[in-house]
């Protein structure tokens, strides 16, 4: 009885509100991945019933391979969004990373060097985004959209619109080879995913990023180096966009000026949001982002195999995106009670 | 003995708005020093200047007689021995109690890995020492009531165990019983020799827990009184302006 008296003054949320509110619905909402996997199964079952090719090992591999690009970009973009930022320049940074690396390759640079240089160039773009947001006080969406347009112009000017060819075999193997039957690009994506999972869930940096996105003022008040976190996040987002671009050019064997662009930006952000990362910052997981990325390529693939016209692709993805963000709102209102 | 914390002629502008002008305050170790004043009097701004969130435009902040130069973030202020409970609490709703309590000072192992177990153990220990019950330390702060959040914010400041503790309206969202709890915590902090600075609207609370009270009005120091030498009426008069301000000390920084 004394227990009840004590918990009345300061109710114990460990049991009080949670146990009542922890309905099945809440649990499912909290773990967006579970809902997404259900969606995948439904789409998968539909596709498998319409096309015998769908479940073939080659096709499953293809689904994962085409999700690699989305996922690698989405890791950096997702971390940035969790930290309260946004990067719409990703699609152009993607192209810039690919073009810089390919340019160096055709000039005869060794591929590790060319990749590092391509990444470095894009990290500078990340710093530019950070500077415009932080010191010119331009909202992230506008700042990075500006970068997107300018880079798109520069990408075209530098190449004159022509593909950069031919690329050395050693470099192309990054996107085309495999180890024990698992494609290299999938392995790279897994490594990137593990690295980001570790960063977000197991390091101080990850907690600080969540704090920054969850409540920036609280981050400042508790002595977090918010400016340092900001610059790190913008640079990381640019680096993953560049890495995705480099993987893509290795896969297609050319530096294409048309490789990235608006749809690449939007796909990465869509994978992040479908994967349950909150636009409001603070919440989201790498697992969720992975499922979001695979779902995007699964939808692509399923619609092609079932010969549903490609326009439906956009309709389906748009609908899922809207649902995901609506669910995010619902989830927040369930997790956060009004004080 | 030099005051643990001293403000001398502190002024602060937000754009063209003068939030503070010539604020003076001496707070001593082992004492509770209350800051009172009407809404907008500049209490929170004073706290944030001491906390390193804002830089004063004029004047100086001294800790144990030494000027705090280059304090431009909460981290450096903390390094100089200052812990703060902000009026808005500065909690991150999507993080749990343990993470929030360790924010800005997360324990690590092997150099880079977050030491979650130690973080949770320390949080639970502090909460137990303070005899407060807010439930499992893995509960997201977003799930807590206003009172529970306030208690978590106070516990976080206590955890950092700094010699100077600033609490900006620590009882604003609390009921009678929780207010008494925070009052106990403040008494214990004083007994352990800390310099405790509290901002409060609650004069009952001030008179039962503080040793001294400084009144701010429209960004200026009206005066400081020992609680034993003054009464509620005089303090209310100082807050409203019915009682004129004490003559300002002459160490106002030359312009
Ligand atoms: N960040 C800020 N930007 C602009 N004005 C501010 C800011 N913070 C406080 N002020 C102004 O400074 C004055 C003092 O505010 P504050 O210190 O919050 O008062 P109190 O805590 O005593 O109620 C008010 O006029 C307030 O509007
Ligand atoms: Mg205030």
Can you describe this structure?
- The complex is a heterodimer of chains A (339) and B (255).
- Chain A has 339 residues and is mainly alpha-helical.
- Chain A has a single domain (38-45, 54-338), classed as ABC transporter involved in vitamin B12 uptake, BtuC, CATH 1.10.3470.
- Chain A is built from 16 helices and two strands.
- Chain A has helices at 2-9, 16-21, 24-30, 32-50, 57-82, 90-106, 111-134, 140-159, 169-176, 184-202, 204-214, 216-221, 226-252, 262-274, 286-305, 311-335, and strands at 178-179, 182-183.
- Chain A has a two-stranded antiparallel sheet with strand order 1-2.
- The longest helix of chain A has 27 residues, at 226-252.
- Chain A is globular, with a radius of gyration of 22 Å.
- Residues 1-20 of chain A have low confidence and may be disordered.
- With 255 residues, chain B is of the alpha/beta class.
- Chain B has a domain at 1-79 and 197-203 and 210-255: Rossmann fold.
- Chain B contains eight helices and twelve strands.
- Chain B has helices spanning 43-51, 74-79, 97-102, 116-129, 146-160, 176-191, 203-209, 232-240, and strands at residues 5-14, 17-27, 32-37, 58-63, 66-67, 82-85, 108-109, 113-114, 164-168, 195-199, 212-217, 220-226.
- In chain B, the strands form three sheets. Chain B has a six-stranded mixed sheet with strand order 6-9-10-3-11-12, sandwiched between helices. Chain B has a four-stranded antiparallel sheet with strand order 2-1-4-5, covered by helices on one side.
- In chain B, strand 7 (108-109) and strand 8 form a beta hairpin.
- The longest helix of chain B is centred in the C-terminal third of the chain and has 16 residues, at 176-191.
- The radius of gyration of chain B is 18 Å and the shape is globular.
- In chain B, 53% of the residues are buried.
- Chain A binds chain B through residues 6-7, 9-18, 202-204, 206-208, 210-211, 214-215, 217-225, 282-283, 335-337, 339, and chain B through 51-53, 73-78, 84, 86, 88-95, 99, 103-106, 108, 112-114, 132-136, 139-140, 142-149, 151, 173, 175, 177-178.
- The site of adenosine-5'-diphosphate (ADP) has 11 residues of chain B, from strand 2 and helix 1.
